[in-house]
Design goal:
mainly beta; Jelly Rolls; five-stranded antiparallel sheet; five-stranded mixed sheet
């Protein structure tokens, strides 16, 4: 984690610490998707809220997260060129039962801004991960810092360009209905295991039944409202 921290020196002496844990393949749907759990303890490292490393998806596949316990921020960023020029940057806020849909062309990381362990579930299609783009720039395009009574956002100066951050929340909408998701406590994403066809949008476009339809649906404008 040292390579992606706001204050890398804060990790000195903590080489054996576990900053977060991922449990993969808790549920699988053959050749289509897997269901994972991620746990991020509460706290901060050198003033930065505990977070995941951050990555992009090699096949630019989308992903769906749900907060099972805690309070999450998800940093989403979309780059131009070599990764150091960010075109769009968003913070997605989600409490228990709420979801975050990650469009396929966005890098992302998860941040625990609450006082208890953050537990996340996700469905992910068949892809590899690109951690190097985030690593070489020492983290995401923003650091999320613990200001005591406030949450603060610091631009990562290793990037060439970083736009102003917009804060969003997933909205219940026709687009979300098409994906088989509702942003509430009554529709956990684990239930999608019983309806594999509703996970079709997580697949590479060549394996999807309606690739053009999903491309149209999976946009920030269709999925989110600004806070």
């Amino acid at each position: 984690m040292k390579e992606v921290l706001f204050n890398s020196d804060a990790a000195n002496g903590r080489e054996n610490d576990i900053f977060y844990t991922v449990f993969r393949n808790i549920k699988t749907i053959e050749a289509k998707a897997r269901y994972d759990i991620t746990e991020i303890p509460a706290g901060n490292i050198g003033g930065e809220f505990n977070k995941t490393f951050g990555h992009y998806h090699e096949k630019a596949l989308p992903e769906i997260y749900e907060v099972l316990e805690g309070h999450a921020y998800f940093l989403l960023q979309n780059f131009l060129g070599d990764g150091a020029e960010i075109k769009e940057a968003y913070i997605i806020e989600a409490a228990k039962g709420e979801k975050a849909v990650i469009p396929g062309n966005f890098g992302h990381l998860s941040i625990n801004v609450g006082s208890a362990t953050l537990i996340l579930a996700n469905w992910m299609g068949p892809t590899d991960y690109d951690y190097e783009t985030v690593k070489k720039l020492h983290g995401g395009c923003y650091y999320v810092l613990d200001g005591g009574q406030t949450i603060e956002f610091e631009k990562n100066k290793n990037y060439k360009t970083v736009p102003e951050l917009k804060k969003l929340k997933l909205k219940n909408s026709p687009a979300l209905d098409e994906l088989g998701i509702r942003n509430d406590n009554n529709h956990p994403i684990l239930g999608l295991k019983d309806y594999p066809e509703k996970l079709d949008w997580l697949l590479p476009s060549g394996m999807q039944a309606r690739p053009e339809k999903y491309k149209e649906l999976l946009t920030i404008e269709n999925l989110y409202r600004e806070l």
